[in-house]
Amino acid sequence: MTAGIKKDEVELDVAPITASEGDYFTKIALQLADKGTCPDLVCEDTFQLPNDVAAGYLTDLTDYVKDYDDWNDGKYYDSMKDMVSVDGVPYALPYCTDARGIWYNKEVFEKAGLLDENNEWQPKTWQDILDACAAIKEKCPDVVPFWCNSGKATGEATSMQTYEMLLYGTGEKLLNDDNKWITGSDGIKNSLNFLNDIYSNGYGPSLSLVLNGQAGNTSAREYMPQGKLGMSIDGIWITGNWKDTGASPWEDYQDKVGLAAMPTNEGQDPGTVTMSGGWALSIPENADNKDLTFDFMEHMMSPEVYLKTILDQGNICTRTDVAEEADYVAQPFFEKATSFLDTAYFRPQNDQYSSVSTYIQSMVESVVSGTSVEDAMKQYNTDVSRTVGEDNVAEQ
Predict the structure, then answer these.
(1) pTM for the whole thing?
(2) SS3 assignment for 50-100
């Protein structure tokens, strides 16, 4: 492999992006648009990829992957290849994927009397979650019962793993069958009412904690391992924080937390729901060293390099061969999280999604901050209609 041969010949200039989750994509877009600042390689959140493709920021990889054996012989999951393609054209190599569920602290749940005979907990409806919150608040008054990303500062995490986990659990989606954005529906109302129930009943963290860009880290790295949090909606990657090499090592974490599937709102089929996404490696259109960059991407995705990295990060892999490696299969919660993908949904491959997502974040933040559900929905309808056009929105 050429990247391996050239490792002592090529100097890598790694440039981390220091930003909140909500600002990361803005900073990336500014760099990609300017030939003077554009990197040769960029890590793309797959939800943002269609938008960056539409803006002309990313390189069509068709000519590169046609000679990339791993791409063509089943080493990548087809669903992951689809996730990094727009209109059938590949623009990235899928780097990782994920699944979301409800993480819960077993010590807190035991004190609240919520664990079953197998020392586990699995809600069947949203009401079961609210009932668990009430029990935690009563039995463990110093513990935050429930945490979910709830503001604009946490960006896509608020849209995807809070609002969309709820909305898709009602049986609705963001777009209807005519590809119009749904801005008024029972599903939207039910999702926002659930969030209103969480915060109006004192089940959530203080707004000062949750409405800032570090909220996700605070939840995963401080409140959960310190026993100050009952449960949170989050992704499989948070286990990377608790490993010996992680940001917040937690001894025997696999015995101290549990992972429950997110139920549908009333327990209707299919019973559970998760949102899945992921990150990918792309070559910017303004890159100076495209051929060399793709060589490096192949090297990064080679099994011997990729396996260690994906284990350290705590993400679900995108390669079929790596998924069968003993070290990968042995990771706590990976098998269960992967099983959630049976009822997984993905964000729409629509270049307007990133704009609509910002309005979702505003709608959620307004509700948790005390705005009525009705007023928040009206503002969402106004915002989305103004951006995508009145003809591209619908109610149901």
Answers:
(1) 0.84
(2) HHHHHCCCECCCHHHHCCCHHHHCCCECHHHHHHCEECCEECCEEEEECCE
